[in-house]
Design goal:
It is a single chain. By secondary structure, the chain is mostly helical. It has helices at about 5-20, 30-35, 40-45, 50-65, 75-95, 100-110, 115-140, 150-170, 175-190. The protein contains nine helices and no strands.
Length: about 190
């Protein structure tokens, strides 16, 4: 049996703690305690808590396989978008409306505090918006989504609206904001 990698232990503990508590509510000591390693080990693997946070944001954004459906040209574009947002919504509902979207959470918490993490988040939002834009443009070419607005504008709007909805469901602890989002997006905005 191989010995656990200290860096991975720290990273995994931080991923869990940042998801549960947020960035400012956990210290390097909290992270190393959860990882079961001495605090000094942290700085052997990470320059700072901020650098670890930026790496976690990148990791979190890259691990979702759900976004792959947006590029699946074998599925009609409107159905891709519906499956995608249904999957996002279900993840938060299945977790009892706790923790939400780490990208949105870190944005709300750290946009004014960390240029490093803010920059990483901006790149993630752009990549996310690009994937939505691809599916919307395909839907416009198929004739399933009207072309009265550009795919880029619609993608930005959908991303912004969903992130706001994800915050609200955490406060209200009900699926109703997701239901409203889906109703408006698929029966008004994309129709």
């Amino acid at each position: 049996m191989s010995k656990p990698n200290t860096r991975d232990q720290i990273f995994d503990a931080a991923l869990t703690l940042l998801s549960e508590r947020g960035f400012n509510a956990c210290s390097v000591q909290d992270i190393t305690t959860a990882a079961g390693v001495p605090k000094g080990s942290f700085y052997n693997h990470f320059d700072s808590k901020e650098a670890l946070g930026a790496e976690i944001v990148r990791h979190y954004a890259g691990r979702s396989k759900l976004r792959e459906v947006l590029a699946d040209d074998s599925i009609p574009a409107l159905e891709r978008l519906r499956r995608y947002f249904t999957g996002l919504n279900d993840r938060i509902v299945d977790r009892g409306f706790q923790h939400g979207c780490m990208i949105g959470n870190m944005s709300a918490e750290l946009a004014e505090q960390s240029d490093m993490i803010r920059g990483q988040l901006a790149e993630i939002y752009q990549a996310w918006s690009d994937k939505l834009e691809y599916a919307i443009a395909a839907g416009q070419q198929e004739g399933a989504i009207p072309s009265r607005m550009s795919a880029k504008v619609l993608a930005g709007f959908l991303l912004n609206a969903w992130e706001g909805t994800a915050l609200r469901v955490r406060v209200e602890r009900t699926q109703e904001p997701f239901d409203q989002f889906m109703e408006l997006v698929f029966n008004e905005v994309l129709k």
